[in-house]
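User: My instructor asked us to take a sequence, write out its structure as tokens, and then describe one feature of it. I'm not sure where to start. Here is the sequence I was given:
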Amino acid sequence: MSDRIQKVLANLGLGSRRAIEALISEGAVTVNGAVAKLGDKISGTEVVKISGRTVLPSEHASTACRVLMYHKVEGEVTTLEDPEGRPTVFDHLPLLKGSRWIYIGRLDLNTSGLLLFTTDGQLANNLMHPKMEIERVYAARVYGELSEEQIETLTTKVELEDGPAHFTKLVFAGGSGRNNWYHCTLKEGRKREVRRLFEALGLQVARLIRIQYADLKLDPSLKAGQFRELSVAEINSLRKVAMLAPLDESNTPSAPLVPKTASQQRPYRQTQSRANLPAHRVGKVKRDERERRFEREVFSKGSDGRRRGPQRRSVRKP
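Assistant: Let's start with the prediction itself. The structure tokens for your sequence are:
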């Protein structure tokens, strides 16, 4: 079965479809020695070169489908390179030969949590395409408690500058007083959509964490800044949602992923001791520690495998 050359090369992770089309227009891509043109179709038995480098030998027409789960950190940008020199989500990913990592569903600078990467361009495209209506679940810490009327509005229709939007589900997940956690479900991935929905009602999101994409939940054992490769069963779960054929063991790579060495990556986070912090920063560190403890309770799992809410804690009187 043949397909357009730009689609085949993009699915191999050699670049975005637009970037591949630009290379073809420049005459940098050849098929069996002849300069390729936009719209040319290949079946996978040809030898394809980009700028003289062989990228598709005739005996290797496809690349293995690999998928990573990464726990994104606040302050990282979802891009390969940042002109401002900020840390990116690619800084700690393992290196690949002959393909590249493609992120599935961008997260903004101040959002943390589940971010998937794959070498399969078709899988990435299907999981992100609006027509597929793939569910994304976020844990949002909101200042104040939502009223029934606000929940009704957020799950029905909110007018945003780029069109109407709403949550398909909105569930209270814990907290009290000014800080309350809600689990919000969307079936699309517009820019800052969760934050903009709350802001449209005058509400402020203090913390935002993606905890689920499709049927895949953020691994509670995965610390911020860490990744793990998905199993064949997990990948096939994603491929089923994306309406793609399942993999078998022969489709999976045998070579393990090798993490970057210290010289190949930028430091994940610079830590400071409390002794070196000014007085106003010590208070913030203590607040951050309380927030992390609360998050562990909200998003941790019990022995029965079900998520449990925050535990009631006694308050010690002064």
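For the description part of your assignment, you could build on this observation: Residues 268-282, 301-305, 307-318 have pLDDT under 50 and may be disordered. Try explaining in your own words what that tells you about the chain.
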